[in-house]
Amino acid sequence: MSVNVNRYKCGYCGACVGVCPVGALELVETWIEVDNTCTSCGVCAKICPVGALVVVK
Amino acid sequence: MKNSYDVIVVGAGPGGSITAKTCAEAGLDVLLIEKRQEIGDPVRCAEGVGKEGLKRHIEPDNRWIAAEVKGSKILAPDGTEIKMSEEASSGKAGYTLERKVFDRALAQQAAMAGTEVMVKTRAIGLLRNNGMVRGINAMYMGETHEIRANIVIGADGVESKVGRWGGIDTSLKPGDIDTCAQFLVTNIDAGDYSKFYLGEIYTPGGYVWVFPKGKNTANVGLGILGSKAGNTRPISLLHKFIETYLPHAKILEMVVGGVPVSGPIKKTVTDGLMLVGDAARQSDPLTGGGIINAMDAGKMAGEVCIKAKEKGDYSAKTLKEYEDKWRATIGKELSKSLLVKNMLLKLSDEQLNQLAHSLEGVDTSKMALQKVLPILFKKNPRILWELRTLFV
After folding, report:
1. What is the pLDDT of residues B341-360, one digit of tens each?
2. What are the residues whose beta carbons fall under 8 Å from the beta carbon of B108, sequence distance 6 or more?
3. Cα–Cα distance between B87 and B54 in angstroms, integer?
4. pLDDT given for residue A1 in this prediction
5. Domains within chain A, CATH numbers bracketed
6. Which residue of chain B is at minimal alpha-carbon distance from A44?
7. How many CB pairs under 8 A join A and B?
8. What is the SS3 assignment for B218?
9. Chain B contacts of A16, Cβ < 8 Å?
10. B167-209, pLDDT tens digit by residue?
11. What confidence score (pLDDT) does residue A22 get?
């Protein structure tokens, strides 16, 4: 379970990191890292201002 | 970098830099880290601040002031304007900042006061001893370092991890965050008021702002509550708004971001740790403004660090003074703003128009929102009944 981040869309704002309920995301400089605690809940994809995140089930 | 400090501040935004400066001026040994290689960039902010709040912390400097504004205008769905100003006497209420320059100026002040600043340095975890937070694990240029401190300040913004590592759940629910997009545009008449457009007609479930950054340029942005975002992205809604209302605008820069609008959270300190600014969710739920609150909170947190050092006690019991202080001031305002915001979100375009029309013949141009609200309530008790607790 994870999310895919389209780094060509991502504006590296970190909003997704702030809403992740399990802390699976991290903003490093200009990219988002996803660790293996991601539950594919999809909250990050819902609030992304540019729609850069896609949930993988 | 040494391996031990009195205070480590994580994040060199306005909140972090003011905390660091306050501590360093009192002679504390302070490390301020910023994970980006450039302080202040990329910007994630509409850059509007009130003059009075700003002046509490720094003397205004033309290097980082993009424009001066007279006040705010709220635009109802039918275009009716409500003009307001926080600073009636001078007729100039606020500024639109150049955050890239402003943030660096604040970090510079912290540095000049004695703070050690490290950029491209990211906190990746906390050090602990007997349950107390006693420093951080940091990564600089791909290498990890253990850096000890008596107090860690999490000023790490909307994406804060420091609180979570310390056992404070700061995760935001979709209803606790505004998802935002903004363009710096030119080739428009920016005017000399910060403008807020309210209503479905402009954007569903949120609002649009236009903050002047010069005669022809402005930050034009749009925010919607995460829980109301559905499948529409703020960036697409913003494109649509600009095509409709500012068809000649030319885009110079794109900014995206999330603004905490949760109102005060339950806990912002623990043993050896305090949270400041967006990390503590201290941004205003109504206006989205967070700069002044972060700086005010940073000052308070810094002063509590100084006291803690004097006492030699860094437990939550000592640090709680910071929490009590910000809650009694910033926190109160956040709660009020949250109430007004929740109310506004429920109003139809027709009701918003009614509210705007009810102020016809009232000169609000020298009043702050806090003065206009009671008038609105008096004239529209039915629509605004939920706000009654604000006026007793």
Report:
1. 999 999 999 999 999 999 99
2. none
3. 13
4. 78
5. 2-56 (3.30.70.20)
6. B174
7. 88
8. strand
9. 258
10. 999 999 999 999 999 999 999 999 999 999 999 999 988 899 9
11. 97
Residue B3 in this model has a pLDDT that exceeds 90 = yes
pLDDT at B89: 59
What are the backbone dihedrals phi and psi of residue B14, each rounded to the nearest 5 degrees, phi first?
-60, -40
- Contact across the interface for A49 and B36, Cβ inside 8 Å: no
- Chain B: give the shortest CA distance to residue A40, in Å: 15
Look over chain B and give the mean of its residue pLDDT values, rounded to a whole number. 96
Hey, what are B152's tokens?
């860690």
How far apart, in Å, do the first and last CA atoms of chain A sit? 5
Which residue among B42, B158, B235 sits closest to A15, beta carbon to beta carbon?
A: B158
Q: What pLDDT, on a 0 to 100 scale, did the predictor assign at position B34?
A: 98
- Using the Cβ of B46 and the Cβ atoms of chain A, whether some distance falls under 8 Å is answered with no
Q: List residues of chain A with CB under 8 Å from any CB of chain B.
A: 11-21, 23, 25-29, 43, 46-51
Residue type for position B58: I
State the Cα angle at B326 between B210 and A43, rounded to 5°: 60
Which residues of A are less than 8 Å from B258 in CB distance? 13-16, 18-19, 47, 49
Point out the residue among A20, A26, A47 whose CB comes nearest to the CB of B179: A47
| pLDDT of residue B259 exceeding 80 | yes
Q: Which residues from chain A sit within 8 angstroms of residue B122, using beta carbons? A: 28
Q: How much is the average pLDDT of B78-98?
A: 85
> Considering only CB atoms, which chain B residues are within 8 Å of A25?
159
Domains of chain B: 4-45+99-172+262-337 (3.50.50.60)
Average pLDDT over residues B363-372: 92
Write the residue in B44, B177, B235 that is nearest to A19 by C-beta.
B177
Q: Which two tokens stand for residue B335?
A: 């709660």
- Give residue-wise pLDDT tens across range B303-327: 999 999 999 999 999 999 999 999 9
What does the alpha-carbon distance between residue B282 and residue B265 come to, in Å, rounded to a whole number?
Answer: 8
Listed in sequence order, the residues at least 6 apart from B365 whose beta carbon sits closer than 8 Å to its beta carbon are B71, B83, B84, B85
Label residue B90 by pLDDT band (50, 70, 90). low
Structure tokens at B253: 């820069």
User: Which of B41, B139, B256 would you mutate first to test chain A, the one with the most A CBs within 10 A?
Assistant: B256
What ranges in chain B are assigned the alpha helix state H?
14-25, 51-55, 99-112, 162-165, 234-245, 291-311, 316-326, 332-346, 349-358, 369-379
